Amino acid sequence: MITVHLRYEIDPDKLDVFTEYGRAWIRLVAKHGGTHHGYFMPSEGDSDEAFALFTFPSLAAYEIYRTASKTDPECVEAFELARRTQCIRRYERRFLSPVFSADAEGDSPAAR
């Protein structure tokens, strides 16, 4: 299992557009076999930083999604929304492996 952590530097004057972008990707990640854990928007503190987390069963499954997203019309439309509105200034992507409690050992990659 692989979790993707995205850190976005966003335009704080375009939160509504970025929210629209995020809602689209929550559905699109699920459409392509992932589990989205949500977008986390600025509240207190920095007004130009947002985060997203989503999980795929494996890095290979994530790569299939990435390839498919380049030609899927709905994904292309979401990419275009961000490009056209410039609601995202930049982003960083990290790949993480989740650790579960001892009660969920069977679900943990380390338990395999």
UniProtKB/TrEMBL annotation:
Highest taxon in the source lineage: Bacteria
Classification via Pfam families: NIPSNAP
Gene3D superfamilies noted in UniProt: 3.30.70.100
InterPro entries registered for this protein in UniProt: Dimeric_a/b-barrel (IPR011008), NIPSNAP (IPR012577)
Domain NIPSNAP residue range list: 7-99
Signal peptide coordinates: none
Record-given protein name: NIPSNAP domain-containing protein
Taxonomic source organism: Microbacterium hydrocarbonoxydans
